[in-house]
């Protein structure tokens, strides 16, 4: 029986969880919060959603682990390729304990890999949200045994992100997500009965998928909302959250009273009002380039352009069937070419700044001398002045229809998250203004850029804040606990397990959870 169990509710939105708890729809989390406490968790999601789980898993901020996007620019090039979880200098925090690393079971942590150690058991991408890779495990023979004894996850991994919008697809997706929660319950029992551990980590990906795909059915203010849609789709998010809560209850009831329970969401979800496809077009105008300026080799341009054209010609339902049958490496190469074409990759060498692919925020990178091949902008004064002027221009953009600002804020991530991986990050991260659809961009200097309808398939998009619910023998009951950060989870878990906290970890021990009650009382808000 583990001493600590961490239950991830991937991208579960804290405002919805609090509402459902108050309405009686999530009684397990409400009971745990009453026994212990619930607090908000801030994260590194202002850089991007792809950075949050790696930051939890390695216990360090993105400037150190370097993972912040599904597809990132390759250092020393102007090329874009897929990222892999193992491509960073850090090990998972549970493996960093210098004395007696805890025996750990890790199930479906997003953006993770099957870390090879005789002290841990790992299952990767059995049912994780939108996994790019095929499933893996440590030891290597574990995954086939799980598939034989527990079964396959009910929803094919890539089908979670199909660009399909008909009602039959959504009905099937809802059913499979609920079936997926049940399958995950069987997975938990399988490991708890067979594998001894000190630390048990599992993540429900169903909350993530439901938020992305069903937000517009729930949100009456969303431009995709259809009042005539079936009731089961309008309540799909609530239904999935309730099923997950019930599964958490079944899992907790299997544990002894001396186990500390941490239920965490390392980021949340909100309505998707971003306008990612417009930002590269604006930056091209800002730099004064168009299709005629490309100096890329013709063959490279044809490959990238062909990927864009092919995707636009093949119906979404056909694309969904095809990608299930294409190998992972081939699919990733095609996706890379498609994204490069969509973000105007062939014009980057002639631009002082350019946009790189992302899903949440806008990523803008300077074509910097000494960092990019044939860079155009001098480091130092020219670089700083360019970023300041561009930030001012971005914040002046207005929506074509409402006239409201479309940019909420602009972040310089390399300043906020310094470290050896910082030069790989964008120079600016653009945060879209929340709470309103964007019909197009209006610039006093560069004119209007209109938006084509419904180019995205997600009606819900990530927001940085998550939450923590904790209960256990050492947890201090606090009505109004101080907020914490996702980087605080790793040192807190290690301290709970009686292991020293490695000095390179970036977080702090959460005072309400550690056994030192005197310290917890000093930090509690009364």
Summarize the structure.
Strand 16 (440-443) and strand 17 (447-450) form a beta hairpin. Helices cover 35% and strands 17% of the residues. It starts with a strand and ends with a helix.
Features:
alpha/beta; disordered C terminus; 20 strands; 17 helices; 526 residues; four-stranded antiparallel beta sheet; nine-stranded mixed beta sheet; Alkaline Phosphatase, subunit A; 35% helix
Rg, rounded, reads 23 Å
Q: Quick one: how many beta strands?
A: 20
Label the overall shape: globular
User: Roughly how many Å apart are the termini?
Assistant: 34 Å
The CATH architecture category of the largest domain equals 3-Layer(aba) Sandwich
Can you give a write-up of this model?
It is a single chain. The chain is an alpha/beta fold and 526 residues long. The strands form five sheets. The chain has a nine-stranded mixed sheet with strand order 7-6-5-8-1-9-19-2-20, sandwiched between helices. It contains 17 helices and 20 strands.
Write the layout of secondary structure elements.
Blueprint: E1 4-9, H1 14-22, H2 27-35, E2 37-42, H3 52-58, H4 62-65, E3 71-73, E4 80-82, E5 104-107, E6 120-124, E7 136-138, H5 142-149, H6 167-194, E8 199-204, H7 206-218, H8 231-234, H9 236-253, E9 260-265, E10 268-271, H10 279-287, H11 298-313, H12 316-323, H13 328-342, E11 353-356, E12 362-366, H14 381-395, E13 398-399, E14 407-411, H15 413-416, E15 428-432, E16 440-443, E17 447-450, E18 460-463, E19 466-471, E20 484-485, H16 489-496, H17 517-523
